[in-house]
């Protein structure tokens, strides 16, 4: 990190350092990442599956030499999994140990309650606290990227929880007080937009809409991941993938699938993507029978 505490010198620096990690960012991505760093704001990245949302967080982590703390969202994710919880088992053991010791002493009413207060203070201390990703991320004092992945999969209530963390970078634990971040993590939230996130949450974030890349950039991405593939083959794959995306499919192929396809044709030793080659490997890019049927008829692959 630079002396002013910023991770990047300018937009070009973001691009260059992401590229060094193998992530090819366009101008929009590099600019938003730069701004998120300068303004100290969380970055919400929204877009279809497999366009490089999660990968951006990972690339950023290595570009700035940080550690990645990941909160994977899912239905039913709650405070105990996202923020913190008390270690009940350990607390119980502590109480039992305390009760054993107390029974030996004089069973006087007042000293009993003092002992209980002591035990209570004891079991609600750091030692019994289980820190989950959000709390862990704000308490770290070395560079941290906090990835809140697939935010739209979590229930709406989780957003309330995120709001406190993302607006004040602090967490309030009733028994311990308010724990404030010593050093703000770089926060990236991702969403597949299966539902709208709340306005309150969006207001706290910078927004990056990631979509399928241009043909040229996708070719570059494929070649950076599968260099042995060669320009010509990468170009054909990208062209076919783009024509598949233009069809009305249940699940359009993503960048991840284009890369897989590259690895597949390399493994099989194909040197052109003729109809037979496309048909025999279609399962790598299209994962619904109806999508395959549609592609075969629209690309007129059944002809031979
Ligand atoms: N700009 C890029 N540069 C290099 N590789 C990329 C880029 N974008 C995507 N990829 C590749 O595409 C793959 C899929 O990306 P990623 O897993 O980040 O998708 P995602 O958007 O998080 O998808 P999902 O919504 O399914 O989680 C990555 O493994 C990465 O190799
Ligand atoms: Mg992802």
What does this molecule look like?
With 304 residues, this protein is an alpha/beta fold. It has three domains: 11-77 and 137-209, Rossmann fold (3-Layer(aba) Sandwich), CATH 3.40.50; 84-129; 215-303. The protein is built from 14 helices and nine strands. Strands 2-5-8-1-9 form a five-stranded parallel β-sheet, sandwiched between helices. α5 (88-104) runs antiparallel to α6. The longest helix has 17 residues, at 88-104. The chain is elongated and about 85 Å long. The structure holds adenosine-5'-triphosphate and magnesium ion. The site of adenosine-5'-triphosphate has 17 residues, from α3, α10 and α12.
> CATH class of the largest domain, anyone?
Alpha Beta
Beta-strand percentage? 5-15%
Q: Element order, helices and strands?
A: HHEHEHEHHEHEHEEEHEHHHHH
Number of separate domains: 3
Within CATH, the superfamily of the largest domain carries the name P-loop containing nucleotide triphosphate hydrolases
Q: What gross morphology would you assign?
A: elongated
Total of helices: 14
Overall SS class: alpha/beta
Look up the CATH topology of the largest domain: Rossmann fold
Mean pLDDT level: 91
CATH architecture of the largest domain: 3-Layer(aba) Sandwich
Widest beta sheet: strand line-up: 2-5-8-1-9
Main pleated sheet: 5 strands, parallel
- Poorly predicted regions: none
Bound molecules: adenosine-5'-triphosphate, magnesium ion
Q: What's the alpha carbon Rg, rounded to whole Å?
A: 26 Å
Q: State the distance separating the first and last CA atoms.
A: 58 Å
* Strand elements, count: 9
Relative helix content: 40-55%
